[in-house]
Amino acid sequence: MKVLAVTGYKPMELNIFKHDDERIQFIKYALKKRLVQYIEEGLEWVLISGQMGVELWTGEVVLDLKDIYSIQLAVIPPFENMDQRWPEPQQFAYQQLIIEADFYKPLYKGEYKGPYQFRAMNQWLIEKSDGCLFLVDEDYPGSNRFLLDVAKSKDHYPILTLTPADLEDAVLEWQMSDPRYWDS
């Protein structure tokens, strides 16, 4: 797999309402572990639309990994100024992301016009990637369900997942890496 689309929950779907919530570090840690595995197996590009939450955090992880690995990031939002109604910290993170990305291009010029822009983005991400990594609980897919449905409709398209159980494992691994964990 050379090109991987990545998506997942929005912060509010994870009950994360602050940009500095400590749970974000665990999500990023789990994403990093998975992405490093794929990079070492030949992954060259990560595609995201740049939406708040998992996609924005994925972009930040990829940018950090660029210091070590030859990996590229493409940010393809459905329309321009997607972040204009976001909280300021997320707007800042998004603006930094699109500045540092290897490729950035909104699918549609101009502002939000309708839900067709998100449907087109979902279709584009699936058509341009070799597989998709979802941070999802299939019993509660949230906004992921739209892209997940498109991915499921494509024959022989790899759907990879990070589940709540994977996140729990990542939290435990993170905690166990701290020597103080073993003192208690």
UniProtKB/TrEMBL annotation:
Signal sequence segment? none
The record ties this protein, via NCBIfam families, to:
PRK13660.1
Show the stretches that span the lipid bilayer: none
Which SUPFAM superfamilies does the UniProt entry name for this protein? MCP/YpsA-like
Record-linked Pfam families: YpsA
Q: Which organism is it from?
A: Cerasibacillus quisquiliarum
Report what the protein is called: UPF0398 protein YpsA
PANTHER family named among the record's database cross-references: UPF0398 PROTEIN SPR0331 (PTHR38440:SF1), UPF0398 PROTEIN YPSA (PTHR38440)
